[in-house]
Amino acid sequence: MRKPHDINRESRTKVSQEKVHQATATKTAPKKAKDPRKHHYVPVFYQNNFVNEDGLLWVYDRVHRTYKELHPRVICFEKDLYTVKPENKPPDMQVELKILRNVDACGSRGIRDFQIGKPNREAEQEIAFFMAFQWNRVPTISRDIRRTYAKTIEELSRVAFANVERAKTVMEQYEQGKGEALNITPESMVEFAQGGRFEIVATEVAFLTTMIKQAMSLTKVLLG
């Protein structure tokens, strides 16, 4: 027989998973932004909780060392931050328009329930879901993840093509797996990799994939 706390843990995990899956489903979402390319990493609805009587926030410019009063719509955003840019295809903004829009909707509902003095279990779950994404959806995390991915691939390339024999083995395995020949010699690959004549650039997919996976895991941790 399972103990009561085991049943509760399973229930919370199930609810957490349902919240994650709901983010990719069609549901009521906040009003569409005027510029779909303007992706806020601190949602406007959240910033609105701290505005003054004019609906503005004080913002400090670290470059020019100046203070300004600005509307939440024009701060804490980066253009195309969550946009996937496939080669020779139109930009894909599903992460922003479907997933994060619904994440923000959950956060808005959960926070509102606490603000009006009606906290409940569902509100806790929605806030946890929102907090999990808020932790790693910022531009600095994007840059760090992409830099880490690129550096890792560069180092793996140098190891894989450390000498001709190793390069030959790696290339043969690739050709067998893909069923296509590589029009380059092992010697050229070694010279290319060891000479530092290349640069690996990780795409936004590395950041977005990591962001979603980490947020799903963190949601479960926050819910206990």
Short description:
With 224 residues, the protein is mainly alpha-helical. Helix content is 56%, strand content 7%.
Task: Tell me what the structure shows.
The protein is mainly alpha-helical. It has a domain at 42-75. The protein is 56% helix and 7% strand. It is built from eight helices and four strands; from the N terminus they run H-E-H-E-E-E-H-H-H-H-H-H. It has helices spanning 4-22, 44-47, 94-115, 121-136, 139-160, 164-178, 186-194, 204-222, and strands spanning 38-40, 57-61, 66-70, 77-79. The strands form two sheets. It has a two-stranded antiparallel ribbon with strand order 1-4. It has a two-stranded antiparallel sheet with strand order 2-3. Strand 2 (57-61) and strand 3 form a beta hairpin. Helix 4 runs antiparallel to helix 8 and helix 5 (139-160) packs across helix 8. The longest helix has 22 residues, at 94-115. The model is unreliable at 1-16 and 23-33 (pLDDT under 50).
